[in-house]
Design brief:
The complex is a heterodimer of chains A (about 350) and B (about 300). Chain A is mostly helical and about 350 residues long. Chain A is about 75% helix and about 0% strand. In chain A, helix 7 crosses helix 8 (about 210-220) and helix 11 (about 270-280) runs parallel beside helix 13. Chain B has helices at about 5-35, 45-60, 65-90, 95-115, 145, 150-170, 170-180, 185-190, 195-220, 230-240, 245-270, 275-290, and strands at about 130-135, 150. Helices cover about 70% and strands about 0% of the residues of chain B. Classes of the chains: A mainly alpha (about 350), B mainly alpha (about 300).
């Protein structure tokens, strides 16, 4: 039975993606359009040429980082809804550092700017982590509240202390020495993708092949048992949210150093919230985050082409993305719930139908 | 500073405070029912946005703002049933499903609007409510007519506060609802159908959240615009916590947050006196402080956020 469950959960994400795309297809048919045409525009828009491939990757990079952030915290039993705020703080930290220490050589400026982004994101994650660990306060509400505090702090910074003279509320451009190198000429694809892939590998290695990762997951599965086993639970809770915040901060830092090169209004397009979706659909597997982030990045990029060429509002992608998470989470709950399986067995016993194994229970 | 202290500015500020508190109040009262029954719904932003688009369509098609409000209720309930089915029947995670509602409903709202009015999302105005002067208070010389002249949904929102109080604390239904959120095992053993009570709470939450959104589109802005709810769903969530899950205090929280919103909009309009961002931050900061227990202690329903499995 356990193997069946394992196989079942491996099939969950692809099955959910197919179901969500089918629902999207129904919506497209209701518009009087051909879903196959629409989806082929979507695909072309995401991967059709070098430029669009580059754009897809540019959106994938921050989603990998925020997906890893949510995964990392969740493995320790804390739900980080605050990746959006941590991402904003990371972007702020990176921009501030690169502008303030602009005369440093690139070899120092680039890594230190990234580090500044990680650090400020980590601080923003450590606050709710500490509050949970020491005072038992719910991290969910706290991280939501801190999102909006961060968004307003960034808005203040780019309208106030960091604003460049001129009509637009934005910071000056950061020195070129701090930019992440471009990987493909003619596209915006930057070295952040390499960092993101390495990051996913490191998170995987840390969680599943080190003693620290084992203890962290133990806290996530059973904090009481971890406490008895001598694990410093409050420390792990705080550290888990701090590192999670740092990873989300890197999402913001990478976007500044690789793509935007300055901080401006409306900087993030919700990558922090996308991270929750990515982590859930990837079933909290760090390496699974990569393909799911790529899928969501492709949906986002291709949606614009589909809207232009087929006349389907690009917002359909939000519906599809929402349905994917919905199916994955609902199916996981059903698979893991004895309650629902029992109800199914009871009904099977009463009616004499259903699989034999179910009836024998 | 003298600009701020003029009578016109202050009266405008107070009127705007009340108007901006109303969508928060409807939605927060809905969330209060939900949380009292043990369902933490962080998808209010999505429910409001979907209520806003439903309300807009209702008012646009019938040319009657009341039908818009009713359509908002229906839209909010429909979208929240997605949440209720997953969290109550399938026992899946409330937080994730709240996020799903936020992403899905906001996307669906803009998708629907564009499907009808074209890809560019043409701006269509609708007829809103007429303002009526409140009897008695409106009779106060000079100020009465200025301070107590609102549209009907504003009065209804504030009338709902005592109604919710009575329903929650003075009826058997309210007692049952709260017992399901405090100690579902005990409620179950007394013969209360936990799942059914949670569905009822989810319907109330969807209806009131949908009303909050429909107020934004039908009564406040007279149009639908993408992202028009603009974080108010999360502020309503904050108001429930800051208001300690009690109708009267939730109303005070909504007025306070509405005041912060009204003030920052006005400060932006007259040029920067102090950075308005800190006013926008206020609801969230106050809620963080309230949660941290610096000012009094906030205690929510004991079983909020937990799925209820029978026979465990």
């Amino acid at each position: 039975v356990k193997n069946q469950l394992k196989l079942g959960s491996a099939l969950l994400p692809p099955g959910s993606i197919v179901c969500a795309l089918l629902i999207g297809a129904v919506l497209i048919i209701l518009q009087g359009k051909n879903p196959l045409d629409a989806y082929s525009y979507l695909f072309q828009g995401a991967f059709g040429n070098m430029g669009s491939f580059g754009e897809t990757m540019v959106k994938t990079v921050p989603m990998i980082f925020t997906g890893l952030a949510v995964t990392f915290a969740y493995r320790c039993g804390v739900f980080n809804i605050g990746a959006e705020g941590q991402l904003m703080m990371g972007a702020l930290g990176t921009t501030w550092f690169a502008l303030t220490f602009r005369s440093l050589p690139g070899l120092l400026l680039l890594p230190l700017s990234l580090l500044a982004g990680f650090a400020l994101g980590a601080v923003w994650g450590a606050i709710p982590g500490y509050l949970k660990a020491k005072r038992g306060l719910n991290e969910i509400i706290n991280t939501i509240m801190l999102n909006y505090v961060a968004i307003q702090l960034v808005s203040w910074a780019i309208n106030g202390p960091l604003r460049e003279p001129g009509p637009n509320p934005q910071t000056p451009r950061i020195p070129q020495a701090a930019w992440l190198p471009q990987l493909l000429p003619g596209t915006r694809l930057h070295a952040g993708i390499i960092a993101a892939l390495i990051g996913a590998g490191l998170v995987y290695y840390f969680l599943f092949h080190t003693a620290y990762g084992y203890k962290l997951r133990l806290v996530g599965i059973n904090p009481q048992a971890a406490q008895y086993a001598g694990v410093n639970v409050p420390l792990y809770l705080t550290m888990a949210l701090a590192i999670s915040g740092g990873l989300a901060g890197l999402a913001g830092a990478g976007d500044i150093l690789g793509v935007q090169h300055r901080l401006m209004d409306g900087f993030s397009s919700g990558y922090g919230f996308d991270g929750i979706a990515v982590a859930m659909v990837a079933l909290l597997q760090p390496l699974g985050v990569i393909p799911i982030a790529l899928l969501f990045g492709a949906l986002r990029t291709g949606a614009n082409t589909m809207q232009r060429a087929a006349g389907i509002p690009s917002y359909i992608v939000d519906i599809i993305q929402g349905m994917i998470i919905y199916f994955v989470v609902a199916a996981t709950a059903v698979l893991n719930s004895d309650d629902i399986l029992n109800r199914f067995r009871r009904r099977a016993r009463e009616t004499g139908t259903g699989p034999r194994e179910a009836r024998e229970h | 500073l003298s600009v701020i202290l003029t009578q016109g500015f202050l009266i405008g500020l107070l009127i705007a405070t009340v108007r901006l508190a109303v969508p928060l109040l409807y939605t927060a009262l809905g969330e209060m029912f939900s949380e009292k029954a043990g369902l933490l719904n962080i998808g209010l932003e999505g429910i409001m946005t979907f209520g806003a688009v439903s309300g807009f369509f209702g008012a646009y098609l019938t040319k009657n703002p009341w039908m818009g409000m009713i359509a908002g209720i229906i839209g909010g309930v429909i979208i929240n049933m997605i949440f209720a089915f997953a969290t109550v029947s399938l026992k899946s995670d409330q937080i994730v499903n709240g996020m799903v509602i936020t992403i899905l409903a906001a996307g669906a709202a803009s998708y629907l609007y564009r499907s009808v009015f074209g890809i560019s999302g043409t701006d269509m105005a609708i007829n809103g409510f007429k303002e009526t002067v409140l009897p008695l208070l409106g009779q106060i010389p000079l100020l009465g007519e200025m301070l107590f002249k609102y549209t009907a949904p504003v009065y209804i929102a504030f009338l709902l506060v005592p109604v919710c109080y009575v329903v929650l604390y003075k009826t058997t239904f309210g007692l049952r609802l709260r017992s399901v959120g405090e100690y579902p095992q005990a409620a179950d053993s007394l013969g209360i159908n936990v799942d059914r009570m949670r569905y009822v709470a989810a319907i109330l939450c969807g209806a009131l959240g949908g009303l909050g959104g429909a107020y934004m589109s039908v009564a406040y802005m007279n149009r639908f615009v993408d992202n028009m709810v603009a974080g108010r769903g999360f502020i309503a969530l904050a108001a429930v916590i800051f208001g300690n899950w009690k109708p009267g205090q939730v109303m005070v929280a909504c007025l306070l947050f509405g005041f912060a919103d009204a003030l920052q909009l006005r400060l932006q309009a007259i040029g920067l006196l102090i950075p308005y961002q800190f006013l926008v931050m206020l609801p969230y900061l106050l809620t963080l402080i309230a949660i941290a227990g610096v000012v009094g202690k906030t205690v929510g329903p004991a079983a909020v956020g937990q799925p209820y499995h029978r026979g465990k």
